[in-house]
């Protein structure tokens, strides 16, 4: 088990990627570091280089509330302890650089985020829907506040 | 020979659940394949936001039939973390017991499937007969063979008495000898070994870069098991072995799973031996305070990841579930290149598909 | 005339073969079930399944050739039934002639070729794959089988099955002189019948139903009959070639011995299918040419030396 803590991580990012990342204190059981969207690739590279076993558990996407435009994207890692990178997509444009060149396993997670939230991942080819039917035309399901009874 | 494309699925004798694959073959060599999920997508995450936490328990249990208990356990742990409560130790041990029984059930089921696919029908029948034993225990304890509804937020719904202990120990003893016999078969039977040794080897780097977890990863030398690395009760109080193997081929994956079954039988006995007395549940308020939490568990197929956010109401604001089969499936097209057509069933079975989990 | 009709249609012809075929299927399924801790079907199950198949809708893909698809099972059935006429059952064979062993072997190969053609003609992907595999398998087991079956012929001094059988009344059962040949013949029979461990063309998990994936109804029912009658004819052939006919004073005892010998072979077939896993096609080809053929030649060599 590594003795990773938040100060160590912030310092490492400061040294290697030369910007000041913040800690997002909200998530229990996890160290979450908030970074701007452009720095995703460089920070993930730092993580992959620094930790023996750096495993991408999931890409979690959410909206704080239906009427807020911003979307929060968490890259949940496991590197000896639970570690996440948080990126906030502000406003109507929803673009993120794709991680599949660094972590091929991110493919399915990105596809799911793309079809569920309408995020566009740059640097990868467009693939058909992963979970939704091919002829789905009602838009990303998580962006609509429609409730169903079922 | 020309390249032809054979469809496997959505309905196929190989698949228990619908999944669509197109496999390109030339003669007896497989060139590659592509995958399409979504046939069992029910939108669980979105549905969870529209139901109260208690209603969600019923929903989460039905994400998957084979790993239903671990899903509810993880969900309850998440909610209990947000509520800031600790459930009684006896409840934790009972949850652990059901988790291990479920692991035994899942692995034995899987063993039968792979035996059937390589033509060892007899082993299939015997394995599923043994699986009935673990189902019997679960039915005696909880009333259900596959969906147990044992968990509730704040603890468990059932309790065990002396009669239960004796029954469980009796059946576990029989299971023990059966699993030893199965291990023997898979390590010595020449045809089984010929069909699985050296098939679809996966290197450690490949496993790590695709984020594959569970027995598949452990069979390629990746020593990662949530029960030991991010322990939750009762695993932090009981000794057990994490099984790994460095071979990375189909035989290694079989070996890891059969050994894990044996280890689970031992774990069940340890849990029974160390079961603390006391209450089995605590009362919890209906509304969950605001907060976010991440919880991980070791499902039979690997790391199960839950993210839960509450906004202070009685319904979750966001529930994210990442099941282990999803990452295993992303590796499948790679596994399918450069093998023989006759190895397709072995490779598919080795992934231990639980498409309902992957689709949610 | 009446007598010929009786031989052709009742015994040892049509009706007798079919009853034996259904009985064999029952014995096989029941034994397999018991090995797998199951109960197994009741005695009338194979007949019930046949009747059920005959009553089902007969459907083929649009591009498939209906006429050829209907002819193939019928031709196969007549081939195996005819082969059965030349194989003495309980010492009795009304139509044997010199050289009928060759005819029998040829007729028994007709269903394999028909099976391959059935796969091509039904046009589905799995059918074509299964058909191709059956042809590949044919080349792996047929050659050692032919070499092996020449053994009893040389020892018995004749190419007529009935003559070979009678020769054993004096010389004793040939299995004593050619135990290796017997084992190789059983392996060859397993390959011909496409049973586990050599059921590669029909491997459900790989090619769904093989050549017969698209067949249903009456055509499939007749294919089932072909498989069963082929098994029975194969078993009787092996009994005649390797156990011969034990002529005892009491004809009932002689017949019983014949039945027991057939049951021994049937039992062997069931046990091997229960125990072994399915081979891959390349493993079978390797087995056929690197192991079976040399052993068969070795056995043949011994037989020739013994004859001298």
Can you give keywords for this protein?
heterotrimer; B: 360 residues; alpha+beta; Cytochrome-c3 Hydrogenase, chain B; three-stranded antiparallel β-sheet; 14 helices; globular; C: 308 residues; mainly alpha; 12 helices
Under the CATH scheme, which architecture of chain A would be assigned?
2-Layer Sandwich
Please report the first level of CATH classification, the CATH class of chain B: Mainly Alpha
Q: Examine the secondary-structure arrangement and name the CATH architecture of chain B.
A: Orthogonal Bundle
Helix content of chain A: 10-25%
From the alpha-carbon coordinates, what is the Rg of chain B to the nearest angstrom? 20 Å
Q: In the CATH hierarchy, what is the superfamily of chain A?
A: NADH:ubiquinone oxidoreductase Nqo5 subunit
Roughly how many Å apart are the termini of chain B? Answer: 40 Å
Low-confidence stretches of chain A: none
Number of separate helices of chain B: 14
In short:
Chain B is built from 14 helices and 8 strands. Chain B has helices spanning 44-48, 53-61, 68-83, 89-117, 121-142, 162-188, 190-196, 204-210, 215-218, 226-229, 250-273, 324-336, 344-351, 355-359; strands at 3-8, 20-26, 29-36, 151-152, 155-156, 291-299, 302-310, 316-322.
Model description:
The complex is a heterotrimer of chains A (150), B (360) and C (308). With 150 residues, chain A is α/β, with parallel strands linked by helices. Chain A has one domain: Beta Polymerase, domain 2 (2-Layer Sandwich), CATH 3.30.460. Helix content of chain A is 23%, strand content 27%. Chain A has 3 helices and 8 strands, in the order αβββαββββαβ. Chain A has helices spanning 6-17, 40-50, 106-117, and strands spanning 22-24, 27-28, 31-34, 55-63, 71-78, 82-89, 95-97, 120-122. In chain A, strand 4 (55-63) and strand 5 (71-78) form a beta hairpin. Chain A starts with 5 loop residues before the first helix and ends in a 28-residue tail after the last strand. Chain B is of the alpha+beta class. In chain B, the strands form 3 sheets. Chain B has a 3-stranded antiparallel sheet. A 3-stranded antiparallel sheet of chain B has the order 6-7-8. A two-stranded antiparallel ribbon of chain B has the order 4-5. In chain C, 72% of the residues lie in helices and 0% in strands. Chain C is built from 12 helices and no strands. Chain C has helices at residues 2-9, 14-35, 45-54, 66-85, 100-121, 125-156, 161-171, 179-193, 204-207, 217-243, 251-275, 281-307. The chains are: A alpha/beta (150), B alpha+beta (360), C mainly alpha (308). Chains in contact: A-B, B-C. Strand 2 (27-28) of chain A pairs parallel with strand 6 of chain B, so a sheet runs across the interface.
């Amino acid at each position: 088990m590594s003795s990773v803590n938040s100060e160590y991580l912030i310092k490492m990012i400061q040294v290697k990627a030369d910007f000041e990342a913040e800690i997002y204190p909200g998530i229990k059981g996890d160290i979450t570091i908030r970074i701007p969207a452009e720095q995703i690739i460089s920070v993930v590279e730092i993580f992959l280089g620094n930790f023996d076993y750096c495993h991408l558990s999931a890409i979690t996407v959410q909206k704080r509330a239906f009427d807020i435009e911003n979307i929060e994207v968490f890259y949940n890692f496991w590197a000896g302890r639970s570690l996440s990178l948080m990126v906030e997509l502000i406003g109507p444009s929803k673009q993120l650089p794709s991680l599949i060149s660094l972590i091929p396993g991110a493919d399915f997670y990105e596809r799911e985020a793309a079809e569920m939230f309408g995020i566009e991942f740059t640097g990868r080819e467009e693939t058909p829907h992963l979970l939704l039917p091919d002829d789905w035309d009602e838009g990303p399901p998580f962006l609509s506040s429609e409730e169903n009874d079922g | 020979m020309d390249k032809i494309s054979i469809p496997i699925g959505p309905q196929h004798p190989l698949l228990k659940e619908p999944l669509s694959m197109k496999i390109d073959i030339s003669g007896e060599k497989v060139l590659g394949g592509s995958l399409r999920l979504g046939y069992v997508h029910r939108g669980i995450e979105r549905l969870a936001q529209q139901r109260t936490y208690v209603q969600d328990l019923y929903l989460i249990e039905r994400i998957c039939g084979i790993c239903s208990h671990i899903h509810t356990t993880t969900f309850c742990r998440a909610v209990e973390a947000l509520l800031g409560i600790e459930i009684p130790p006896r409840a934790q041990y009972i949850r652990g017991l059901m988790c291990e029984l479920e692991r035994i059930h899942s692995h034995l089921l899987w063993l039968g499937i792979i035996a059937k696919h390589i033509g060892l029908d007899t082993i299939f029948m015997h394995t599923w007969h043994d699986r009935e034993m673990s189902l019997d225990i679960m039915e005696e304890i909880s009333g259900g063979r596959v969906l147990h509804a044992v968990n509730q937020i704040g603890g468990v719904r059932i309790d065990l008495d002396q009669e239960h202990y004796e029954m469980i120990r009796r059946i576990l003893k029989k299971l023990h000898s059966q699993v030893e016999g199965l291990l023997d078969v898979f390590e010595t039977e020449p045809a089984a070994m010929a069909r699985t040794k050296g098939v679809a080897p996966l290197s450690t780097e490949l496993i790590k870069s695709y984020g594959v977890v569970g027995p598949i990863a452990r069979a390629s030398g990746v020593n990662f098991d949530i029960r030991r690395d991010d322990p939750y009760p009762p695993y932090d109080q009981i000794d057990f072995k994490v099984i790994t193997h460095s071979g990375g081929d189909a035989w290694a994956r079989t070996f890891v799973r059969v050994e894990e079954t044996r280890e689970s039988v031992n774990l069940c006995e340890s849990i029974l031996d160390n079961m603390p007395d006391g209450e089995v549940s605590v009362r919890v308020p209906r509304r969950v305070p605001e907060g976010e939490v991440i919880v991980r568990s070791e499902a039979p197929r690997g790391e199960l990841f839950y993210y839960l956010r509450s906004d202070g109401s009685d319904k979750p604001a966001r529930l994210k579930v990442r099941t282990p089969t999803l990452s295993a499936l992303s590796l499948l097209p790679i596994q399918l290149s450069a093998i023989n057509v006759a190895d397709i069933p072995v490779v598919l079975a080795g992934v231990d598909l639980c498409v309902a989990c992957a689709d949610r | 005339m009446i007598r010929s009709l009786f031989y052709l249609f009742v015994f040892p012809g049509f009706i007798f073969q079919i009853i034996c075929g259904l009985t064999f299927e029952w014995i096989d399924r029941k034994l397999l079930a018991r090995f797998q801790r199951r109960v197994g079907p009741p005695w009338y199950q194979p007949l019930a399944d046949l009747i059920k198949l005959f009553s089902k809708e007969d459907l083929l893909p649009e591009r498939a050739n209906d006429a050829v698809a209907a002819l193939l099972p019928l031709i196969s059935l007549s081939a195996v039934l005819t082969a059965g006429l030349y194989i003495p059952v309980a010492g009795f064979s009304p139509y044997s002639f010199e050289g009928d062993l060759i005819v029998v072997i040829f007729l028994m190969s007709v269903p394999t070729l028909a099976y391959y053609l059935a796969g091509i003609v039904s046009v589905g992907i799995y059918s074509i794959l299964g058909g191709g595999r059956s042809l590949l398998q044919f080349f792996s087991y047929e050659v050692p089988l032919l070499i092996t079956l020449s053994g009893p012929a040389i020892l018995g001094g004749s190419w007529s099955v009935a003559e070979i059988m009678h020769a054993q009344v004096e010389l004793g059962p040939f299995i004593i002189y050619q135990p290796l040949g017997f084992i190789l013949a059983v392996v060859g029979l397993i390959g011909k019948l496409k049973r586990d461990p050599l059921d590669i063309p029909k491997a459900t998990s790989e090619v769904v139903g093989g050549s017969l994936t698209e067949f249903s109804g009456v055509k499939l029912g007749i294919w089932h009959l072909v498989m069963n009658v082929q098994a029975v004819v194969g078993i009787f052939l092996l009994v005649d070639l390797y156990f011969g006919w034990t002529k005892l004073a009491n004809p009932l005892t002689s017949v019983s011995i014949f039945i027991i010998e057939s049951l021994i072979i049937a039992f062997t077939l069931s046990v091997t299918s229960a125990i072994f896993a399915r081979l891959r096609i390349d493993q079978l080809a390797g087995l056929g040419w690197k192991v079976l053929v040399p052993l068969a030649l070795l056995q043949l060599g011994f037989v020739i030396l013994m004859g001298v």
